[in-house]
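Researcher: Next entry in the queue.
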Amino acid sequence: MLRFAINQFIKSPEVRVILENGENLGVMTRDEAIKRAQSAGRDLVLVVEEAKPPVCKILDYKKFLYVEKQRLRKAATSGRGRGGELKELRFGPRTGGGDIDFRIRRTREWLSENNKVKFTLQLRGRELAHPEVGLKKFDQITRELADIGEADGGVSKMGNSYSLTFKPKK
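Model: Structure for this entry, 170 residues:
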């Protein structure tokens, strides 16, 4: 849960005050800053506590919280802090060589951006009797991506499909 010190809960006696539009009002006492915020119908929110003096903004606290939550949610889903996203490419045992080459080129781009890539081989009908045809494509993909990525584990089977995940080489 996000928590910011607002109005009377700001402990520092002196703060640097900034308006919503980014205009710097300078350093003033906490009480004076709170009066300015209240006269504008806004709240005084402590945004940078470590600064000397601490930095506060005069803004609508509820809107500020909403925007911060949205920013954090987007940061969490983008996954940049966790080593990138997981991209998935699907193909079948009868997928042509040109299509496999295109998927390999896309995978190279994604691995260079620090993303993981999951290849999924879908088998249908009579293809289930000969999975080795599709698994040969995994061997080709592994060979061609050996310079930039490495298999994250082995080939895993789940129902009618096989999957192999690649991660960027360190």
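Model: The chain has a mean pLDDT of 88.
Researcher: Noted, moving on.
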